Amino acid sequence: MNFFVELVVCFFLMVGSFFALVGSIGLFRFKDFYMRLHGPAKATTLGVGGILIASMIYFSFAHGGLLVHELLVTLFLVISAPVSAYMLSAAAKRS
Hints:
Layout lengths: L2 H27 L3 H31 L5 H26 L1
């Protein structure tokens, strides 16, 4: 594997780890339920997406072909995380 691919994978891993850390800190530090919901719904979704994209790039170059399993997981995560955050906030508002 060449140096440029490793650099791109490292970039996505670092960005994804940073966003996951920020989302986790937001979950820990915020005081209200609605504020705590915002951290995992936004930042952690971006973090996991970045890590999955890095995994997709790495394994695509390691196996010599395009692997899109991680892309499908990322797509499902991007679609389902806001919906679940909305459902949690709607349930909290009703109770």
